């Protein structure tokens, strides 16, 4: 990471460290003064719903690659144990939202959501949910459910991270980098963005993008067959979607290609394709929606109402309350980087009283923002 004096990255890093240090100290003091329990017991907390958002539960070392959005299964189990120990009432999302607006929420209400629908949900998250008997909602983006391959920009970021620190000879093809510099987070991010642009500009198919990622792995000495065999950064396939639905997981909408178009026809098409795929795979009509990467625009709200969507969740941190628009509900995104103390602060509601830094989906270390990870997946190969 470029932390030399005066660099933008250094300034952001110092700002985040300073805020985190201050917040941790304040939360530690609040816990010692028994303010967490006071928050738990308050009528303010009782009428609010904490919606937790998870993304990936590591099959291998993904939580080291991207601790913002990934954690290990052991880490997830520790989170659930904290909820159980603190007496939280973990409710199905649909019931929790309905009861919040009805004013009948039980104390310490929590709803669990998982975004995107990665294969690791089936292999890692579902067993932990079953162990604790917790209900959950899975927001599924459906384009890759028919494609047994990793999500292209994400796998490029992961491969460059696995090969970090070195320099490698690359492609001889026009438009592709002949020199692969993976020594810094910034150089890795630049390479991933270059490959992403090349794939879009040349209208590569999903299969051709996967071949490009495999070539990147070959040039950098990363075992791509191991990634494929473990299905790292693959989405659930059809059988797995049916399996999690049969296990009681509510599968809801996250758009077909993980994007939030600003044009009505494109937006409606994304949701319609997404909803049709989910209904076909689960025999259940979805009614709830998660904005991809939390990105939403004012015009989305009337379109969602026209489609009779019951709720929409964002990635803006906070507790949901009856005064909020059901199509703009906040969530707390949990990952390895969130301390145990701050997590408990959110469970109690006390953390909502402290300032928060703006949320970024991915740092430069991870190569590319998730907001563009699925964007324009298949402009030339629409399904």
Characterization of the model:
The longest helix has 25 residues, at 8-32. It is globular, with a radius of gyration of 21 Å. Helix 2 runs parallel beside helix 15 (340-348) and helix 8 (152-162) runs parallel beside helix 10. The strands form four sheets. Strands 1, 4, 5, 6, 9 and 12 form a six-stranded parallel sheet that branches. The chain contains 16 helices and twelve strands. The protein is 46% helix and 11% strand. It has 383 residues and is of the alpha/beta class.
**What would you report as the Rg, rounded to the nearest angstrom?**
21 Å
Instruction: Determine the strand fraction and express it as a percent band.
Output: 5-15%
Helical content band: 40-55%
Question: Which sheet architecture does the biggest sheet show?
Answer: 6 strands, parallel
Give the overall form: globular
């Amino acid at each position: 990471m470029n932390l030399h004096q005066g660099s933008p990255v250094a300034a952001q890093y110092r700002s985040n460290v300073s805020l985190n240090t201050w917040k941790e100290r304040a939360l530690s003091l609040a816990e010692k003064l028994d303010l967490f329990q006071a928050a738990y017991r308050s009528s303010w907390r009782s009428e609010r719903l904490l919606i937790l958002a998870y993304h990936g539960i590591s099959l291998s070392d993904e939580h080291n690659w991207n601790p913002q959005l990934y954690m290990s299964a052991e880490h997830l189990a520790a989170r659930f144990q904290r909820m159980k120990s603190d007496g939280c009432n973990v409710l199905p999302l649909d019931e929790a939202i309905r009861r919040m607006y009805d004013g009948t929420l039980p104390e310490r209400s929590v709803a669990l959501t998982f975004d995107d629908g990665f294969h690791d949900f089936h292999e890692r998250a579902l067993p932990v949910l079953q162990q604790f008997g917790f209900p959950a909602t899975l927001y599924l983006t459906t384009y890759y459910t028919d494609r047994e391959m990793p999500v292209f920009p994400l796998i490029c970021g992961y491969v460059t991270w696995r090969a970090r620190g070195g320099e490698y000879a690359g492609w001889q093809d026009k438009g592709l980098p002949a020199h692969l510099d993976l020594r810094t987070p910034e150089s890795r991010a630049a390479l991933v963005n270059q490959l992403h642009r090349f794939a879009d500009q040349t209208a590569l198919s999903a299969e051709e993008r996967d071949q490009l990622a495999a070539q990147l792995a070959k040039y950098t000495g990363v075992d791509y067959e191991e990634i494929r065999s473990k299905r790292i950064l693959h989405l659930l396939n059809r059988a797995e979607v049916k399996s999690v639905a049969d296990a009681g997981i509510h599968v809801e909408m996250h758009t077909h290609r993980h994007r939030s178009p600003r044009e009505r026809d494109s937006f409606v098409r994304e949701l319609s394709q997404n909803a049709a795929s989910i209904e076909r795979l689960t025999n259940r009509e979805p009614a709830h929606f998660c904005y991809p990467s939390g990105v939403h625009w004012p015009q989305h709200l009337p379109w969602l109402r026209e489609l009779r969507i019951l709720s929409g969740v964002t990635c803006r941190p906070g507790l949901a309350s009856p005064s909020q628009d059901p199509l703009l509900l906040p969530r707390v995104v949990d990952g390895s980087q969130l301390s145990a103390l701050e997590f408990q602060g959110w469970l109690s509601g006390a953390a909502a009283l402290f300032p928060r830094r703006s949320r970024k989906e991915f740092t430069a270390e991870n190569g590319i923002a998730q907001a563009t990870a699925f964007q324009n997946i298949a402009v030339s190969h629409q399904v």
